[in-house]
Amino acid sequence: MDELKLVVASNLIKLRQKAGMTQAELGEKLNYSDKTVSKWERGESMPDAYSLTRLAEIYGLTVDELLHDDTAWQDPVEKAKAAEKAAAPTFSSRMVTMVAIVGIWTMAVIMFVVFWLVMDARLWIIFACAVPVSLITLLVLNSVWNKGRHNMIIVMALVATIITLIFLFLRRYTPWQLFLILIPAEILVVLCFHIQGRRA
Q1: Are 33 and 49 within 8 A, CB to CB?
Q2: How confident is the model over 31-46, as pLDDT tens digits?
Q3: Is residue 198 part of a domain?
């Protein structure tokens, strides 16, 4: 019986403090004095059945939860959140990223096969186009799930692949000068990612 008094006392203290009430305010809600509430919280006496029912209503718990150690029960809001979290489907951000990238390359292969069957042209360019599309997808998903960690590297790779892609499209003109743009463009990317740095 003494153990039960201590469990109830501990629960009442935690619940009252969590609700931001004084012993007098709680006593007023129950039509008891703050001295009675103080005795309950010191484990000197137990609330009667009616008071336990009223306490359970005030705190949004069951009487059974009030009579058990607080590790056996949860706040109703936390309980609802836990149930919602359990019902929500879980997925791996890495797997979603992989599915998106592989999906892009699958589309590139499908286009390659279709164009190969229909006409004989420079089909390899389809795969060259899949690289920047993959990098853009990776950039977006990395920003969402990894808080942008390694985005600078992804953007640098994207700039390099776009310049290379332009070169490949204009290959008959041998525009090697395009690669001169690469160095200042990559420096610009690095500087842009360090704009929010230390104050001078």
Answers
A1: no
A2: 888 898 888 888 888 8
A3: no
